[in-house]
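A student in our group prepared the protein record below, which I am reviewing. This is what I was given:
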Amino acid sequence: MFKKLKIGLALGSGGARGLAHIGVLKVLEREKIPIHVITGSNIGAVVGGMYAQSPDIRQIENKIREFFTGDDFKKTGLHLFRQEIQPENFFGQIAHRSDDGLSIQWDKKRISLMKQNRLGTIVEHLLGDRLIENTRIKFAPVATNLETGEIVVFRSGSMREAVKASASIPGFLPPMQYRDMVLVDGAVAASIPVEPAFNLGADFVIAVNVGRSLEHETMPSNVIDILFRTNLITSLRNDIMACEKASVVIKPDVGHIHWAEFDKLPELIAAGEKYTETAIEIIKMGIRKNSGKFVKYEFETEKG
C-alpha cells in the first residue's frame, strides 16, 4: 500500500524521554508502515541506530529493558542526575545553595561532569559495531560542530562513534574529537533532524518530538533558573521550526519526565505507543495521498 513512497523517521533528542521512540516504532511496525530512512539526534540516534541495524522493535525493546534495569547502567552514573536529586539543567548541577544565596562551584579546567567512557558503555552495549553505510535501513545520526556551529550528518563510518558524538550532552559529557572536528550533542543544532531525513531521500517524514514543555517548569526564582528557562525557550522554538518542515509530527506527553529518569521505561514506551495509535489513521491518510511535506498533523495529548 505504501511501496511507492519513501518514508522517513526523524527521532528527536530528550535523554530518557526518547525511550518513547520505542512505542512509536512498535505501532508503525504493527501497522506495517515501512521505514526507508531514519535520522536521529541524541537518544533518537541510539534508538534509530538500533532499529536501522536490526528492524525488530520487540528485540530492541528487550535489549534496552535489559540494559537500563541492569548493573551496567548503574555503573554509568546517569541515574544520579534524576530530578528528585538534582535539577535537569546543567547550571543547576554545579550550583550550590547556601545561606548567602546561590553560587557556582566549578573547576575552570574541567570540561564536563562525566567522562566520555560512561556514554561509551551505553552505546557499546546497545549498538553493534557496524558501519553506518551498511545498515539495513538508511540511517544518519546528527551531531553539532562545536567550532562552526554546523549540523554534522553522518552518512558513513563507525556507527558507535557517530552515535556517541550525537549524544554528547554539553556540560554533562565532554566534546568528542572526530576526524578534524570537535563535536557535541546533535540537539544543539538539530534536536529533531527533519531536514536531513528529506535530504537522504525521504518523501514523507514523520517527526517525533520528545522534548520538554514550559508548562511543566516552575517560574524562575534565581539567575540559574532564568538562564535555563531562556535556553529552554530557544530550544522549543527551534523544535517548532524543525517540525514545520515535517509531514507529520508526533508529540507524546513525556515533557514532564526528567532526561535521566530511565527507570520510567514502561511509562515512556506506553506514551509513545498510545499517541502514535491515536495519530495512525492521519499518518496513513497522508502517506496514501503522497503529499510529502504538504500534509501536516501534530498530535499532542489532551491535558487532564
Notes: The radius of gyration is 19 Å. Residues 83-87, 96-106, 292-304 have pLDDT under 50 and may be disordered. The first helix runs from residue 20 to 30.
